[in-house]
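Appendix B, example 12.
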Amino acid sequence: MIEIFKTNVQDQVQANLIRETLLTALPNAHICFDLEDKDSILRIEAAVVDPAQIVSLVNATGTLCKLIPDKICPSPSISVKDIENFWETSFEKNQAMWGFQPALSASIVKDLFQQQGIKDILIPGIGYGRNASVFIDSGISVTGIEISKTAIDIADQYFTPPLKIFYGSVTEMPFDNTVYEGIFFTDCCIF
């Protein structure tokens, strides 16, 4: 889980003191500040993050802290159809919008998967498959889930043989009975 907070931290010394305070409550968390951002962003990644606890701990140091709410899915009123329409329109308009070069995170996770001997992965939100090639080229079998038919059509044109991509929302899984050894989300992996 990742939570992002707006603060009024002024310098690295203050950021380090707050980081040490937070690590007493969240010893296994990854905590960092972006002091170049106008909102002096505090980013916390941990298995569980209680925003109220974070705000309270930071405020106790005399520093202002406010949770920045998730804007991707701000309310349960956003339906799967709304998300499908968003991505379908995006891929129709922009096609291969990120190019075909895999993200750096895909290469890093590929190395982790190889170290673990993982040979079969799932990529939810695979898009047109730009991150799949780094895994396939390393002998890892890839299955994707994608909500945009246009993205799947682009992937079908790019990959020979075509990738195995299930059409639908990740919220409607499972699409088959396969148990995957690894899952790759952009900038996140589970194995």
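The two ends are 16 Å apart (CA to CA). The chain has two domains: 2-67, 80-190.
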